[in-house]
Write a structure and sequence with these properties.
- The chain is an alpha/beta fold and 266 residues long.
- The protein has eleven helices and eight strands.
- The chain has two domains: 230 residues, TIM Barrel (Alpha-Beta Barrel); 30 residues, no CATH class.
- An eight-stranded parallel beta barrel has the order 1-2-3-4-5-6-7-8, surrounded by seven helices.
- Helix 6 links the parallel strand 4 and strand 5.
- Helix 5 packs across helix 6.
- The longest helix is centred in the last third of the chain and has 18 residues.
- Bound molecules: 3-methyl-2-oxobutanoic acid and sodium ion.
- 3-methyl-2-oxobutanoic acid binds next to loops.
């Protein structure tokens, strides 16, 4: 399989071919998802929740994102690797954004970056794109603004549908190569997908987006908490690991591990 590149994503939209994105935060999952044919891997700042155990994505640092991104890029032979710019590392100015994004590319080996925000981020998206950094935008519910938005709420209802379309058009005009649309009504996301010519990647945004994204621990059933309504769980990795850990501990307690085949003779 050849490396996924940005023009391939646009071509898939033109052909009406849907595709799936998954998050990844380490080399093993990057390899597994890459070999499973996932064309785009997102090193999400959802790592704040899924890897580091924080309540929100706000505390995630650029250093943390760089380290996770380098691991994923090392494991991804074919997938396009997109890294999230974490909170506070791009909102101050387009220059701050450029310096932060350049670190994700140079040190993290990312192929593109993602940032949250619509029309207000247009000058920043333009600056990054002109400087050789492809940008995936992220509109609708934007988790880094959880404290401003008043918690997890569905976006794009009523008048907000027009604002969502305006945001999508603005990020497209600024040069974004794709846009994540999170937790908005299916109708609002469908309208954006029909009227904007870059790929839309939905999460809790209905079936009419060009692509979908899920956090892998949600998709595979690794986490312990409640998952949002928009998640479909495809495996029960948590119980597989729990059973493995218990079986190992029981073998050790019983003296049945290590056996002769795991031991070295003199
Ligand atoms: O951080 C993340 O995982 C994300 C996706 C859920 C879109 O931003
Ligand atoms: Na994110």
């Amino acid at each position: 399989r050849k490396r996924t590149r940005i023009p391939h994503l646009r071509a898939m939209k033109e052909r009406g071919e849907r595709w799936a994105m998954l998050t990844a935060y380490d080399v093993n999952t990057a390899q597994i998802f890459d070999e499973a044919g996932i064309p785009v891997l997102l090193v999400g700042d959802s790592a704040g929740n899924t890897v580091f155990g924080y309540d929100t994505t706000v505390p995630v640092t650029l250093d943390e994102m760089v380290a996770l991104t380098r691991a994923v890029a090392t494991g991804a032979a074919s997938a396009l690797v997109v890294a999230d710019l974490p909170f506070g590392t791009y909102q101050a100015s387009p220059e701050q954004a450029y310096l932060s994004a350049a670190r994700l590319m140079k040190e993290g080996l990312a192929h593109a970056v993602k940032l949250e925000g619509g029309a207000e981020m247009a000058p920043t998206i333009e600056r990054l794109t002109r400087g050789g950094i492809p940008v995936m935008a992220h509109i609708g519910f934007t988790p880094q603004s959880e404290h401003t938005l008043g918690g997890y709420r569905v976006q794009g209802r009523g008048d907000a549908a027009a604002q969502l379309l305006e945001d999508a058009r603005a990020v497209r005009a600024a040069g974004a190569f794709s846009v994540v649309i999170e937790m908005v009504t299916a109708d609002a996301a469908a309208a954006v997908t029909a009227q904007v010519d870059i790929p839309t990647i939905g999460i809790g945004a209905g079936v009419d987006c060009d692509a979908q994204v899920l956090v892998w621990q949600d998709m595979a059933g690794l986490g312990s908490g409640r998952t949002p309504r928009f998640v479909k769980q495809y495996a029960d990795v948590r119980s597989v690991l729990t059973d493995a850990a218990r079986a190992y501990a029981a073998d050790v307690a019983a003296g049945s591990f290590p056996a002769a085949e795991h031991s070295f003779e003199s």
